[in-house]
Each structure stands twice: as structure tokens, then as C-alpha cells.
Amino acid sequence: MEKIVAVTNCPAGIAHTYMVAEAIEKEGQQRGYEVHVETQGAAGVEHKLTADQIAAANYVILALGKGMSNEDRQRFDSKKVVELPVSDALKNVPDLLDHLDERAEVYHASKVKLGSDQEAVQTGIISHLMAGVSAALPFVIGGGLLLAIGSILIQFGMPNVAPKDGNLGSLAWVLNNVGQLGFTFMIPIMGAYIANSIGDKPALAPAFLTTYLANSPDLLGTKTGAGFLGAIFLGITIGYFVKYFKRINIGKTFQSTMGYLIIPFVTLLIFGLLTYYLIGPFAGWVMGALIKILNSIPTSMKIIGGFVAGCMLAFDMGGPVNKAAWFFGFSLLSSKVYTWYGIVGVVTVIPPMAAAIATWLKPNMFTKQERESSLPAFLVGMTVATEPAIPYALAAPVPMIAANTLAGGIAGALSMVLGVKRIAPGIGVFDPLLGLIYPWFNYYVAFGIGLILNVVFILWFKGAWLKKQRKAAQG
Q: How far is CA 379 from CA 356, 359, 366, 393, in A?
């Protein structure tokens, strides 16, 4: 019996991670393989592969969306490894297992490359950015929920009183301030883990401290912090600085101190001074100008921007185009610009829910497998995971993607017009009830119209597409 081990992860650690893991396990077991899958999701590492499982495995599959550190890869030294983006794995697990031997390359821990797929996953800038986002998510989610609870308590008449004269602060005040810490550390954590993704652990502390400095106007004497721009710039530059610094050979005597002493100290010294005198003030000025521009965009242009963002979010359902729009909206949270992330809250839940509803309304237009997947797609879609819409799009790409994109664009434009704001990631359509999206009524208007339009477009476009397919089949 052939044995396969796999590792799956994705930027958010919510949908792709577990869907691909389940698909690999199910398909592998059907073929008579012994399969063990380690998931690196939002809950941390689960079902961690043991040394014995790895040693006995004939193949290793790495389906990654946020990359993997060199330290983590060392487990698979001398194993036959197939590495590919997690989004590609989700599209066709049977094909992946059909061609394992052809695609596998022996991995050597001393080397970096495993082939073209691995190159794209590990060295792509987007994968490093997503590693930073993945690390920052728990901070902003936890902080956002505490802020929402604190706000709800205040609305119900509870006091919001700071500590004074030896008295403790009120519960609402504590929740709001602890929650705000999540937003305070969100950007430094993002910068730190971008650097960590590139340069490993020696880059973590210097990137965290310099990004925190760049986002401290009181320390820099600037009007605004560097925001996500500072996190991206410092994370990437420090990451690559450390990556190449590690290649310097300083002799056996001091080599053992490189990782925990010399590299962090030298990197922090150089980039700390650069951040204080140059990078921080300049990035803060750029960030202030960007926020000013975003706030002063005419309404007509905001509608166009909302439409474009909505189209991007719905287009590839968790792919790179979706992630680019998501990252833009998410990154502005630390600067208290919430409308672009409001579009994310509206649009991302729509495609899978619309696909499910369409199967219930016109079951004859969908396969048995699509009908059986409709309820899980609907429920998972409600929690801001667009990925369950992917199987429907793969079965009929032109009509489904067109329907999703057009409806997403309209919903995005409506969200911007109605001023929907989302202060933190949450649990999808229930976010307004938690105080994470407001005004709640405007959110449900934009979401409801977008959902209805998406269902209508699916039935219309796919109906025409199927009719054309039947005519072509008949000659």
C-alpha cells in the first residue's frame, strides 16, 4: 500500500486549508492509499505529521497558500515532494494524485527550489504578504470582537470609565482598550511575519520593532503612522536583508551566534535608525496622503471603485485577484478606513450562497454532486468563505464566473453608496449582529440585492450556456 502525507495551509486558515485536506484524504483513501494530512489553519497545526509517518511515506504533498519556512521543510529532506498552490490543489485533486510520480521531485533541505510550482509558492511576494496577513488576523479578529462587545455594553447603558484615583476601569472601558491593542499590534505583527516568511526567525524581532516604531506618530513626531505600507516595505526589505545576511560566513567561533544575536542586533540597529530618520516619516506621509485621497474621492468615483473591488472579490473566489482586493480593504483597518473592508463583508459571502440557492430553484441545471454540496456550500458561504463556489465555477466556468463577477460588482458599488463599514473580520452574515459591520440595515440591503442578482444571473447565464451546449451536441 502506497503512503501519502500532506500539509495544507492558506492565508486565512479557514476554508482552503480544510477543504483541500478533506479532498486529499477522501480521494487517497478511495484509491487504497494510506493518507495523513497535517493542516496549518486558523486553529494552529492540527494532525501534525509524525517522524514515522513522514519516513514511511512514498510521496509528500505540500498544498500551500502562505508558504512554509525552511525550518518546517527540513522534515521532508530526501522525500519525493509535490508542491503546488493550495488553490490549484482544490481544483483537481484526482489529477494531482494521477500524476504524483511525474510531478514529484526529491527535496534536499540544503536547497531552496523544488520546481516551478514551489518557486511560485515560496518566493512569490503575495505568499509572503499573505503570511503576514494570516498572523495578523487573530489580533484584529479578537480585538474587533472585544470592541464590538464593549460598544454594545455602552449602548445598553453601561459606563465607559477609565481608571482613576485607584479605582479600576469599567468593564466596557477594559474591553475597548484590550480590543484596541489588537489593532495596535496588527500592523507590527504583519510586518514581522512578512519578514519571517522571507528570512525566517532572525528577521522576526527586527521587523516587529521597526514596524511598531513606524506606526508610532508620537515617537516619530509625525501626523500619521506608516500603516500597512510601512509593514509591507519593512517586512520585505528586512526579510531579504536577513536572508542574504545569513549567507555570510564569519567562522565557526561566531557562526552559532548569528541567528539569535548578530543578525537581530545588526538588522535592528540599521533598520531602527533608518525607520526613525527616513522610512517612518516618509511612509507616514505617503499613508496620510493615501487616506486623504481615499476620503476625498467623489461619490461617482467611489461607486466605480466599489464596483471594481466587488468584481475582484467575486471573480476567482479566493484566488489571487480576490486576495488582492481583500488585502487592500483589510490593510486599511489600522488607519480606521472601514468602507473598503465593508465591501469584503458584503461580496465574499454571496457566490457560494447564490450557487446553493440556484441548485434548489433549478436542480435540473446542476449535477447530483453539485446538488449534494449545496447545503454545505450555503452554510460555509455564510461565514465569508467564498471557496465553496469553486466547484460550481469549474463545472461551468463562463456562466458562473460571469454571474458572480457582475453581481459582486453591483453589490460592491451598493456597499460603497450605502456606506457599509466593517471594523474587523468576523463570521459573515452575522457580523452586523456582533457590531462588526454597520449600519446593519444598509449591509443587509446591499447583501440581499447582490444575492438575488447573483442567483438570477446564474439561472439566466447557465441556462443559456446549457442550451448552447445541447445544440452543439446535437450537431
A: 9, 14, 19, 18
Active site residues: 10
Q: Could you tell me the three cell numbers for 234? A: 519593512
User: Would you say the C-alpha torsion 235, 239, 241, 245 has a positive or negative sign?
Assistant: positive
pLDDT tens digit sequence for 401-457: 999 999 999 999 999 999 999 988 888 898 898 888 999 999 999 999 999 999 999
In contact, 78 and 108? CB cutoff 8 Å: yes
Count how many residues are written for the chain: 475
Distance of alpha carbon 428 from alpha carbon 350, whole angstroms: 10
Is 297 in a helix, a strand, or coil?
coil
Helix (H, G, I), strand (E, B) or coil at 62: strand
Please tell me the distance from the alpha carbon of residue 353 to that of residue 372, in angstroms, as a whole number: 14
14 vs 40: CA distance, rounded Å: 10
Specify which of 38-42, 188-192, 247-251 reaches the highest per-range mean pLDDT: 188-192
CATH number of 3-123: 3.40.50.2300
Residue with cell 513606524: 214
* Angle subtended at Cα 313 by Cα 307 and Cα 314, rounded to the nearest 5 degrees: 90
* Confidence (pTM): 0.69
CB 286 within 8 A of CB 225: no
* Comparison of pLDDT for 391 and 279, the residue scoring more: 279
Average pLDDT over residues 460-475: 86
The whole-number average pLDDT for the span 245-271 is 83
Kindly report, residue by residue over 64-104, the tens digit of the pLDDT.
887 787 778 889 988 999 998 888 888 788 889 988 888 88
What does the alpha-carbon distance between residue 262 and residue 269 come to, in Å, rounded to a whole number?
Answer: 11
- Nearest to residue 61, comparing CAs of 97, 27, 22, 19? 97
Q: What is the spatial distance between Cα 280 and Cα 271, in angstroms, rounded to a whole number?
A: 10
Under the banding of pLDDT at 50, 70 and 90, the label for residue 12 is: low
Cα 244 to Cα 330: distance, rounded to the nearest angstrom: 30
From residue 52, alpha-carbon distances to 5, 21, 34, 75 in Å are 11, 20, 13, 11
- CA 407 to the chain's CA centroid: 22
* Range list for CATH 3.40.50.2300 in the chain: 3-123
